[in-house]
Amino acid sequence: MAADGYVDHAPGYVANEGPKIVTGRFGYEDSHRLARFEATGGYEGLLRALALAPGAVHQQVRDAILLGRGGAGFPAGVKWGFLPPGRYPYYLVVNGDESEPGTYKDRLLMERDPHQLIEGCLIACYALGLSQCFLYVRGEMALAQERIAAALNEAYEAGYAGRRICGTDFSVDVVLTWGAGAYIVGEETALIESLEGNRGMPRLKPPYFPAAVGLYGQPTIVNNVETLSNLGWIMANGADAYRRHGSESSPGTRMFAVSGHVRRPGVYEVEHGVTTFRELLYGDNFARGILHDRELKAFIPGGGSAPWFFPEHLDLPLEAKPVGAAGSMLGSGAVVVMDETTDAVDAALRLVRFFARESCGKCTPCREGTTWLERILQRIADGRGRPSDIDLLLDVSDNISPGPYPAASDEARGLAAVAFPPRQTTICPLGPSAVAPVVSTIRRFRSEYEARITRRDAIPVKAAS
């Protein structure tokens, strides 16, 4: 432990070499307190932003090419520009409903450095001329809720939030709220429905995206926790300094939660677009390889909803474009690692069961299809599978997220096992998320499904009397 109380390990987080843009305070036991935040440069970015015109702050974010960290990877500065002029009030909604299987980076940001998030919210509100921000946190994250609430109280008392912030004419009210544990509310329009007091179900879009018609029918920007947490550093150090990290098309750093069969699971902040999956999973600076020196079987690169990757994908950089071209996504920043002992059928069942339980039921293909996938997979796992079940799984998958899927022989050439981006028959991507593990495992490990199906006789059908 350093003299100032900094440690290399915090619960869930592993310090590693490299730039620290959003995790620099994680090693302090009091990282969630205002005193520590101010002592380590906190709110300096807000003060610098307030010294500029709002348009200049917006331009800094554009110049930094800050990509969204919630899954889509869309540039935040460009997204902000979609607000239609003159339709006040505008709202900022912070998506802290982190529920994707394998993902826990945003939870650490909210628990370990809530003031950094609040500072980002204030900078975004100033740049866009907003006077109200809604911070929505996942229902199960009690510690995150408590620490954000305490940090908000400190920020209001110190004059960083509320009326006439830091002696200026800028005023913002930040409202903390939380959900009831519904995965679907991670989808931005379902989150808005929940904020309005309705059942959390996604809205049809187009025609109405939140930037045009969002919360209470007003233009609304929805940003992810990690996205906003970058803003204080960008304003304090400048867009040019931010772009010196990462790749040209994906600047800065990004947090990845690595879990599964690795020696050192945890959350790592890595340079965006530069680090490869091989470095992240095997590097001494990161996860340090597979447990018990076993072989890697597969890994999910972007949370439970992402199509699976395999050993031949290890040298892909952690960047949206090459990962998307290979047939998957970085998504929520979660890498789930499976070694050679993993049963593909059981792994697929576990993920499909989650999505079937979390379907909101609004769209028939998702409501019925995910349940069918779970039932068929459970039947195979229980040893009651039918010879036709494997093709039936693919048929149900095709009805939720239409193919065509590449031939199995295409796997050797690294082609996608699932259509990506997914073709949807549903309003939101939850349905295709359940398809990803099914198709990924069948195309790669079909023999494991066949081995679990011991029944070879036809299914008798009783004749009508």
Write the layout of secondary structure elements.
Blueprint: E1 9-10, E2 13-14, H1 34-39, H2 44-50, H3 54-64, H4 76-80, E3 91-96, H5 105-112, H6 114-128, E4 132-137, H7 142-158, E5 173-178, H8 188-195, E6 220-224, H9 225-229, H10 231-237, H11 239-243, E7 253-260, E8 266-271, H12 277-282, E9 296-300, H13 320-325, E10 334-339, H14 344-358, H15 364-381, H16 389-400, H17 430-452
Parallel strand pairs: 3-4, 3-6, 4-5, 7-10
Antiparallel strand pairs: 1-2, 7-8, 9-10
Helix pairs in contact: 2-6, 2-10, 3-6, 5-6, 5-7, 14-15, 14-17, 15-16, 15-17, 16-17
Name of the CATH homologous superfamily of the domain at 32-239: NADH-ubiquinone oxidoreductase 51kDa subunit
Number of helices: 17
The CATH architecture assignment of the domain at 32-239 turns out to be 3-Layer(aba) Sandwich
Tally the beta strands: 10
| Overall pLDDT confidence | 91
Helix content: 25-40%
How would you characterize this protein structure?
This protein has 465 residues and is an alpha/beta fold. It has helices at residues 34-39, 44-50, 54-64, 76-80, 105-112, 114-128, 142-158, 188-195, 225-229, 231-237, 239-243, 277-282, 320-325, 344-358, 364-381, 389-400, 430-452; strands at 9-10, 13-14, 91-96, 132-137, 173-178, 220-224, 253-260, 266-271, 296-300, 334-339. Helix 5 (105-112) packs across helix 7 (142-158) and helix 14 packs antiparallel against helix 15 (364-381).
